[in-house]
UniProtKB/TrEMBL annotation, chain A:
Keywords in alphabetical order: ATP-binding, Nucleotide-binding, Transport
GO molecular function list: ATP binding; ATP hydrolysis activity
Organism expressing this protein natively: Tistlia consotensis USBA 355
Entry-linked Pfam families: ABC_tran, BCA_ABC_TP_C
A cellular component term, taken from the record's GO annotations: plasma membrane
SMART domains registered for this protein in UniProt: AAA
Domain called ABC transporter: residue spans: 8-249
Protein name listed in UniProt: Amino acid/amide ABC transporter ATP-binding protein 1, HAAT family
From TrEMBL, chain B:
Name the UniProt record assigns to this protein: Amino acid/amide ABC transporter membrane protein 2, HAAT family
Transmembrane region(s): 12-29, 36-54, 60-79, 91-112, 155-182, 215-234, 246-270, 290-311, 332-355, 386-403
PANTHER family xref list: ABC TRANSPORTER ATP-BINDING PROTEIN, HIGH-AFFINITY BRANCHED-CHAIN AMINO ACID TRANSPORT SYSTEM PERMEASE
Segments of this protein annotated with the region Disordered: 419-442
UniProtKB/TrEMBL annotation, chain C:
Subcellular location: Cell membrane
Keywords per UniProt: Amino-acid transport, Cell membrane, Membrane, Transmembrane, Transmembrane helix, Transport
Source domain of life: Bacteria
Species of provenance: Tistlia consotensis USBA 355
Protein name stated in the entry: Branched-chain amino acid transport system permease protein
Length: 269, 442, 313
C-alpha cells in the first residue's frame, strides 16, 4: 500500500458553515480498486464530505489527494477531468434530453470535445459507440430515445450511475445510489454497481447495510463530522462504539432500512 | 434527436420551398413589400440568434439590442471607410457586424454569465441601457444624437442601389447564418448548450467549464445578432442610438416567444408574422403595438410554446390524430377566435378614433356634442347601443364558442395521449409536463 | 453653495419619489420572486387616473382614489394573470409582466395620445415654501417628499408592528412554512402585489402633477427603479430607501458637474493627453449622468449581487 499512493486520500478534511463545524478533521485512505462505504446517522456530514471531495464546496481545512496529487480548491470540472466522478443523491440528469443524449454529453467530455463546433456529433463514431456501450451497461437500451424526465425513478437512478461512468473516471463517488428503491430494485442496482465499478475505486454513501455488505471491502462510520471507525463491514457491525453511536445518539432514526435497525437482523454475522 | 431541433423528414423539402419562394418571388412584388421582406429577413435572423441564448441555453436576455446595435454601428464605420476609398467588397460588409458583435458579446457575456436567472436578465438589461444612454453623447463612435450615415458603394458591377439588390444581399447572409445556426445545434457544443439549459450543475460535474461554455454561447448569439444589425445598417444606410433602446430588445423577445422558443424555426416564424403584419396594418391602425402586446400576453397565458410549439405538437402526434373528429371543434374554435378578435379590434379601433385628435377636431367643428364617427366604412353613433353592443356581442359569442370547442378538443387530445404512441412519445419539451397548454388552442 | 442646497433638496425629494415606486417592486420580488416589469406602469397609471379624476372630482379626491384604482388593477393582475402561470416558473412570470408593461403603455397612448397631458397641481398648492439665495422653492416638491416619508413610516410600522406585517415577513422568508401554519399565502401574495401597485400609483398621482405625465414615464422611471432595487438589494426595503436617496442625490448633482475622465488624468499631469483622445475621456459627468446609474447597477450586480442591504444573492 505504501508503494503507490492511495487512489483517494483525505487528510484532516474540515468544513464549517459559518461558525458551525460540519466535518471536523476526516482522515481516510482508499487504495486503488477498493469499494468503500461511508455510513452514519443523518446529519453526520456524509453528503457534505462528498461535496467537499467533488469540489462543490471549498474546504475549510485539510487536503484531498487523488492518486497522491492535491485536488483541494479545484473547481468541480477540473476535479472531474483529474479522474473523479460523482453521482447525486437527488437525481441530477438532463430531463429534457433523450437518455442517449444524457450519456453522450458525458462521453463527449472524456473525448475533450468541450468546444467542438465544427463537426456534427452524429458523425463521431467513437463517441456514439461509447455512449451506446454505457447505455447497454446500465440496461437502458430500450429507452434510448425517450426523454430522461420520462423515465421511472429506478431507471433514472441507473442513468445517474451511467452518467457518472461516462467521463471514464477511475474513482467513482456514489451518493446513496439505492435510496428510495424497492428491495428488488436495490438488488438489481447492487449488481449493476458491482459490474460497472469493476477495476475502479468506489466510495459510496449508503444507508442500507445489506448493500454495504454485499458490495464493499471496507466501511467508515461518520458521526458528527468525525470518523469513528474504519474497518471491514463484519467488524464494524460488531463494534460496540458504533452501535452506541447509532442507537444512543440518534434514537429517532426510524427508517427500517437504516443501519441502526438493520444491524441486529441482517448485519450480525 | 432532442427538443428544439426535431425536424420531420419533410422539413428539408419545406425549407427548400420557402427558400425558393424567397428567391423567386420578390422581383414581382412592389417596393413596399420588398422592403418589408428585407425587414422580415433581418428580424428573423435576429430572433434566431437571440433564441440560441434564450431557447437553447436557457439564458433570458433583456438587452439584445446592444449587440444588434453594435453590429449596425460597426458596419456603418466600415461603410464610411469604403466611401473614403477603402477597397472592401460591399457584399462582405456584414463581417464587420459579426466581428463587433462577437467581440462585444464575448466581453459582455463574460460578465453577464457570472450571474444567473433574474440577475442575468438584469445585467443584460443594464448593459443595453449603458449603450443607449452613452451613445447620444459619444460623437466619434456613435455619431451623437443624429447617429451615423453612409452610402452603399457599388462593387464588382453591382450597384446596390435598388431594394432588390439589398434584399438578395440580405437573403444570402441570412441563409448562410441560419444554416450555421442550424449546424451549430448538431455539434457537440450545440448538444452541450441544451444540457446547460437543463442542468448546469451536472454539466460541471461531467467535466465541463460551465462559465466558459456560457460565454461562448453568448458571444455566438451576439455575433449573429451583429450580422442582423449589419444588414439593417446596409439597408437603411443610417443608424442612431435608438437601435439600443428597450423597444428593440423588447421586439426580439416578442417575436421569439410568440413564434415559440422551443422550436428552432419558431422565432423566425414569429418575426416574419409580426414584421409582415406590421407592414400590412400599420397604415390602417394606430394600435398595432397594442395588438402585439395583447397577442404576446395571450400566448404567454394560453400557449407558452408559441406558434411553433403548437405546430410541433401537432406534427409530433400527426399519426394519432383523427382529423375527421378534430376538424369540427377546431373550426369552431377558429371561428370563436375570429369573433373575439373582431370584437376586440372593433372596440379598440372605435376607442382609438374617439380618443384621437381627429375626433377632437370633429367635435370642435360640430360645436360640441358627440357627432358620429367613421370606422370600417360605416358611420357609428358614439352613444349608440349598436356601437358598443356589437363588439361586445361578437366578443362574448366568440368566448362561448371557444369554451365549447375547448371541451371537445381537450377530450380528443386526452384520447390521443392515452393511446399508445406510434413513435417514441417524448421527443420535445411539450411532450411532458406542458403539453396541455400548448396543445389545445384554448 | 446655492447649487448645493437646491440640488440636495431636489435630490432627496426625487429619491423619496423613487422610493415610493421601488418599495412595492422590492417587496414583491422579496416575497414572490417576481421581478415585475410592469411595476413602473402602475406609477404611470396612477398619474393618468389621477389626471382623469382631478378634472371630474377635483385634485384631492383624485389623489386619494387613483391609488385605490391602481391597487385594484394590481390585485386583478396577480389573481387572474400571474397566478395562472406561476407553475411555469419565474422566467414566464417575468415575460408576462413584460408584456403587460407594453399593453399598459399602449392603452395609455390609445386613450390619451402620444403627448403629455396637462395634469396640474391645484393653485392653492402652487406657492413657494421658502426662498433660498433669491430662488423660490416650490412647496409642491416638499409635498411630494412629505407624502413619500409618511408612506414609508406607515409601511414600516405596518411591517414591524402588526400581525399582518409578521405574516408578510414570514411569507417572504418561508412561504411553505407560513402556509403550513394556516396563513392564506395566495391571499398574502395578492394583497402585497395590490399594495405595491397602489404605492406606485400614489407616487404617480402625486408626482404626475409636477413632472410631465406622458406615455414614456413608465419606461423612463422603470429602468431607474430597477437600478434602485438592484443597488439597494432585491427584496430589501431599507436598502431601497438608501439607494433611492443615493440615486436621487446623484442625479440632481450630476447635472452641475463638468468633470470628465480627463480631469482625473489632470491630477497626474496627463490631462492634455487624455483630452487629445476624446471620446469617453472628455465626456463630462453632466452629459452622461444618465449612464452612471447603469454603471453602478452593473458594478453592484457583478461585485455584490445582494446589493447594499440585501440578504440573498
Amino acid at each position: 500500500m505504501s508503494a503507490s499512493p492511495p487512489a483517494l486520500e483525505l487528510v484532516g478534511v474540515a468544513k464549517s458553515f459559518g461558525a458551525i463545524p460540519v466535518v471536523r478533521g476526516v482522515d481516510l485512505q482508499i487504495p486503488a480498486g477498493e469499494r468503500h462505504a461511508v455510513i452514519g446517522p443523518n446529519g453526520a456530514g456524509k453528503s457534505t464530505l462528498f461535496n467537499l471531495v467533488s469540489g462543490l464546496f471549498p474546504l475549510s481545512g485539510g487536503d484531498i489527494r487523488l492518486r497522491g496529487r492535491s485536488i483541494a480548491g479545484l473547481p468541480p470540472h477540473r476535479i472531474n477531468r483529474s479522474g473523479l466522478a460523482r453521482s447525486f443523491q437527488i437525481t441530477n440528469i438532463f430531463h429534457r434530453l433523450s437518455v442517449f443524449e444524457n450519456l453522450r454529453i458525458g462521453v463527449m467530455a472524456r473525448h475533450g470535445l468541450r468546444f467542438g463546433l465544427f463537426r456534427p456529433v452524429a458523425r463521431m463514431r467513437q463517441v456514439n459507440e461509447e455512449a451506446r456501450a454505457i447505455l447497454a451497461l446500465v440496461r437502458l437500451e430500450a429507452r434510448a430515445e425517450d426523454l430522461a424526465g420520462d423515465l421511472t425513478y429506478s431507471e433514472q437512478r441507473a442513468l445517474e450511475i451511467g452518467m457518472t461512468l461516462t467521463t471514464g473516471a477511475d474513482v467513482i463517488l456514489l451518493d446513496e445510489p439505492t435510496a428510495g428503491m424497492s428491495r428488488e430494485e436495490t438488488d438489481r442496482a447492487v449488481e449493476l454497481i458491482r459490474e460497472v465499478t469493476a477495476g475502479k475505486t468506489l466510495l459510496m454513501v449508503e444507508h442500507d447495510m445489506s448493500v454495504v455488505f454485499s458490495l464493499c471491502d471496507r466501511v467508515s462510520v461518520l458521526v458528527y463530522g468525525e470518523i469513528l471507525a474504519t474497518d471491514t463491514p463484519e467488524r464494524i457491525s460488531a463494534n460496540r462504539a458504533v452501535q452506541e453511536a447509532y442507537l444512543g445518539e440518534e434514537p429517532d432514526e426510524s427508517s427500517g432500512r437504516d443501519f441502526g435497525q438493520d444491524s441486529g437482523g441482517e448485519a450480525a454475522p | 434527436m432532442s427538443p428544439p431541433v426535431s425536424p420531420s423528414v419533410r422539413t428539408p423539402l419545406l425549407l427548400a420551398l420557402v427558400l425558393a419562394l424567397l428567391i423567386g418571388l420578390p422581383p414581382f412584388l412592389d417596393l413596399g413589400l420588398q422592403n418589408a421582406l428585407v425587414n422580415v429577413l433581418i428580424a428573423g435572423l435576429f430572433a434566431l440568434a437571440f433564441n440560441l441564448l434564450v431557447g437553447q441555453a436557457g439564458l433570458l436576455s433583456f438587452g439584445h439590442a446592444a449587440y444588434f446595435g453594435i453590429g449596425a454601428f460597426a458596419t456603418l464605420h466600415l461603410m464610411r471607410a469604403v466611401e473614403d476609398g477603402l477597397a472592401f467588397p460591399t457584399p462582405l460588409l456584414p463581417l464587420a457586424g459579426a466581428a463587433a458583435g462577437l467581440a462585444v458579446g464575448a466581453v459582455a457575456g463574460f460578465f453577464a454569465t457570472l450571474r444567473s436567472g433574474v440577475y442575468f436578465a438584469l445585467v443584460t438589461l443594464a448593459i443595453a441601457e449603458l449603450f443607449h444612454s452613452l451613445a447620444p453623447h459619444w460623437e466619434g463612435l456613435f455619431g451623437g444624437e443624429a447617429g451615423l450615415s453612409s452610402m452603399r458603394m457599388p462593387w464588382g458591377g453591382l450597384i446596390f442601389g435598388s431594394t432588390l439588390e439589398v434584399y438578395y444581399l440580405a437573403l444570402g447572409w441570412v441563409t448562410l447564418s441560419v444554416w450555421l445556426l442550424w449546424a451549430y445545434t448538431r455539434t457537440p457544443f450545440g448538444r452541450l448548450t441544451l444540457a446547460l439549459r437543463d442542468n448546469e450543475q451536472r454539466v460541471r460535474f461531467l467535466g465541463y467549464d460551465a462559465h466558459a461554455t456560457k460565454v461562448i454561447v453568448f458571444a455566438i448569439s451576439a455575433m449573429f445578432s451583429g450580422v442582423a444589425g449589419a444588414l439593417q445598417a446596409i439597408s437603411n444606410e443610417t443608424a442612431n442610438y435608438s437601435l439600443f433602446s428597450a423597444h428593440v430588445s423588447a421586439g426580439v423577445v416578442l417575436n421569439t416567444f410568440v413564434g415559440g422558443s422551443t422550436v428552432f424555426f419558431g422565432p423566425a416564424l414569429g418575426a416574419a408574422a409580426f414584421t409582415l403584419f406590421d407592414h400590412l396594418v400599420s397604415d390602417l391602425t394606430r394600435s398595432w403595438q397594442l395588438y402585439q402586446g395583447l397577442i404576446f400576453v395571450l400566448v404567454m397565458l394560453f400557449a407558452p410554446g408559441g406558434i411553433g410549439g403548437i405546430v410541433q405538437h401537432h406534427l409530433r402526434h400527426r399519426r394519432q390524430l383523427d382529423w375527421s373528429r378534430l376538424a369540427g371543434p377546431y373550426a369552431l374554435a377558429g371561428l370563436g377566435g375570429a369573433l373575439v378578435a373582431a370584437g376586440m379590434v372593433f372596440m379598440i379601433e372605435s376607442l382609438s378614433v374617439l380618443f384621437g385628435e381627429g375626433y377632437a377636431v370633429l367635435r370642435r367643428d360640430a360645436g360640441g356634442g358627440h357627432p358620429p364617427f367613421e370606422a370600417f366604412g360605416a358611420q357609428w353613433d358614439p352613444a349608440g347601443p349598436l356601437t358598443w353592443g356589437l363588439p361586445l356581442a361578437l366578443f362574448l359569442a366568440g368566448l362561448f364558442l371557444i369554451a365549447r370547442a375547448r371541451r371537445d378538443i381537450a377530450a380528443l387530445w386526452e384520447s390521443v395521449r392515452s393511446a399508445p404512441a406510434g413513435r417514441p412519445a417524448g421527443r420535445g419539451p411539450e411532450a411532458s409536463a406542458r403539453s396541455a397548454p400548448s396543445g389545445s388552442p384554448s | 453653495m446655492e447649487f448645493a442646497i437646491i440640488s440636495a433638496l431636489n435630490g432627496v425629494i426625487y429619491g423619496l419619489l423613487l422610493f415610493m415606486v421601488s418599495a412595492g417592486l422590492t417587496l414583491i420580488f422579496g416575497m414572490m420572486g417576481v421581478l415585475n416589469f410592469a411595476h413602473a406602469s402602475f406609477y404611470m397609471l396612477g398619474a393618468y387616473v389621477a389626471y382623469t379624476l382631478s378634472s371630474l372630482v377635483g385634485f384631492w379626491a383624485g389623489l386619494l382614489v387613483a391609488p385605490l384604482v391602481v391597487g385594484l388593477v394590481g390585485l386583478l393582475v396577480e389573481r387572474y394573470l400571474l397566478r395562472r402561470i406561476h407553475a411555469f416558473g419565474h422566467a414566464h412570470e417575468l415575460l408576462l409582466t413584460f408584456g403587460l408593461a407594453l399593453i399598459f403603455e399602449e392603452l395609455v397612448k390609445l386613450f390619451y395620445g402620444d403627448f403629455p397631458v396637462n395634469y396640474q397641481m391645484p393653485d392653492n398648492l402652487r406657492f413657494a415654501a421658502f426662498t433660498v439665495f433669491g430662488t423660490d422653492y416650490p412647496f409642491y416638491r416638499l409635498f411630494i417628499g412629505g407624502v413619500a416619508l409618511a408612506m414609508f413610516l406607515v409601511l414600516y410600522l405596518l411591517l414591524s408592528r402588526t400581525r399582518i406585517g409578521i405574516v408578510v415577513r414570514a411569507a417572504e422568508r418561508l412561504p411553505s412554512m407560513a402556509e403550513a401554519l394556516g396563513h392564506n399565502i395566495p391571499l398574502v401574495f395578492m394583497s402585497v402585489f395590490g399594495a405595491g401597485a397602489a404605492l406606485a400609483g400614489l407616487g404617480g398621482a402625486v408626482a404626475g402633477a409636477f413632472f410631465p405625465t406622458n406615455p414614456n414615464m413608465a419606461l423612463e422611471l422603470g429602468v431607474i427603479v430597477f437600478v434602485v432595487v438592484v443597488v439597494g438589494g432585491l427584496g430589501s426595503l431599507k436598502g431601497s430607501l438608501v439607494a433611492s436617496l443615493l440615486i436621487g442625490l446623484f442625479s440632481s448633482f450630476a447635472v452641475g458637474i463638468d468633470w470628465s475622465l480627463a480631469s482625473l488624468f489632470d491630477l497626474v499631469g496627463l490631462g492634455p493627453w487624455a483630452r487629445s483622445l476624446g471620446g469617453l475621456m472628455t465626456m463630462t459627468v453632466s452629459s452622461i449622468s444618465g449612464t452612471i446609474p447603469f454603471v453602478l447597477m452593473l458594478v453592484v450586480l457583478l461585485v455584490r449581487p445582494a446589493g447594499l442591504m440585501g440578504e440573498r444573492s
